[in-house]
Amino acid sequence: MDPRVLAGQLYELHARAERSGEQGYLERWPGDGETHGVLVFAQAHADRLTGEAYQEAALLRITLAEWLRQQADPLQLRALDDARGAGVRWDRVAVALQYVNAEGEANPSSAFNRHAALKVAVHGEPEDRRQPHVARIIEARAAQAEVHRRERERAEDARYPKLDALARALLRHVEAGKILTDPDDDFWWSELGEVVDDRRDASERANLVVYVRGAIRETASYARRSGKAPAGTEEAWRVLESAASLVELTIGEFGGSAVSDV
Fold this sequence. Notes:
The structure is a single chain. 68% of the residues lie in helices and 0% in strands. By secondary structure, it is mostly helical. The mean pLDDT is 84.
């Protein structure tokens, strides 16, 4: 959702009401980019609307308030993480969250549960329920994802020297006009040329496969559309074939003859 669009729709409802009543109150409209101010203003002047306009404005306010809450959740989670990381006790966090009883005593368990619920809201899936035990599931899920990420980086790092050599060979053949490229759309080939010399850490080296795969698919797609061969020499074809195999693409995607003048 775009809050500016929603605020603009809310403004139009009030503008129509103002034109009929000539009240001039919209001169104090906060501006569509001030979402919180728009909500406060629209709520203060809600009774100026009637009938269907009143209902529609109320629904717009609900959506805008939900947008604000979603924006605030990751900010509050980060603040809670920072506080706990700095050694702040849960009872002090509870006071900051105003989780206190009638006697002013802090409720640290409520603060803990709030932290867990925010983890679910920020890092969970849409179907995850905001309950403390779900936060543990999300933490396990994130840990597993991190394991997979590191395994992928190790695997990509192991084959990086070969992939790097093939990427550079591909670019040489492209520059020589021996590998087919779309004159109107060479995004991935251009990107590959930009990043091939800029692989400083394991994550960047692992991501080289994305650019090589994208460039090869770009050539395959154009070869199918144009009916042209993807390579102009046997050597260029062998490099293209080797690179496709290394990044787990099926060479049959190219279609047509393998080599011709390009």
